[in-house]
């Protein structure tokens, strides 16, 4: 039985159907899926010979890279805030 807080939603990413289970709203899950789809299509347009598995890995690498850059920016901003409080 599905946890009451969890939602199950089917999304389309790069022409494939995926069932996602999560606690976020359905709209949040759809937005995330749409962003993954957009990134895959963007990378595919630049590298049309990539198979889907390689495309998925490159999408993951690009996404984690972007995530790490954002984390670094947040950490830097937090340090700046702490310095201003002192």
From TrEMBL:
Name the UniProt record assigns to this protein: Cell division protein ZapA
Source organism superkingdom: Bacteria
Assembly notes: Homodimer. Interacts with FtsZ.
Gene3D superfamilies, sorted: 6.10.250.790
A Pfam family annotated for this UniProt entry: ZapA
Record keywords, A-Z: Cell cycle, Cell division, Cytoplasm, Septation
Principal place of residence: cytoplasm
Entry function: Activator of cell division through the inhibition of FtsZ GTPase activity, therefore promoting FtsZ assembly into bundles of protofilaments necessary for the formation of the division Z ring. It is recruited early at mid-cell but it is not essential for cell division.
Extent of the signal sequence: none
Organism of provenance: Peribacillus psychrosaccharolyticus (Bacillus psychrosaccharolyticus)
InterPro entries membership: Bac_CellDiv_Activator (IPR053712), Cell_div_ZapA-like (IPR007838), Cell_div_ZapA-like_sf (IPR036192)
Cell compartment(s), UniProt: Cytoplasm
An annotated GO BP: FtsZ-dependent cytokinesis
UniProt keyword Lipid biosynthesis, yes or no: no
Gene name, Swiss-Prot/TrEMBL: zapA
CC annotations in GO: cell division site; cell septum; cytosol
């Amino acid at each position: 039985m599905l946890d009451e807080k969890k939602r199950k939603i089917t999304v389309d990413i790069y022409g494939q159907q995926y069932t996602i289970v999560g606690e976020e709203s359905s709209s949040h899950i759809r937005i995330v899926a749409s962003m993954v789809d957009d990134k895959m299509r963007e990378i595919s347009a630049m590298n049309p010979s990539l198979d889907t598995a390689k495309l998925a890995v490159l999408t993951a690498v690009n996404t984690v890279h972007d995530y790490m850059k954002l984390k670094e920016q947040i950490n830097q901003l937090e340090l700046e805030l702490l310095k201003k409080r002192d």
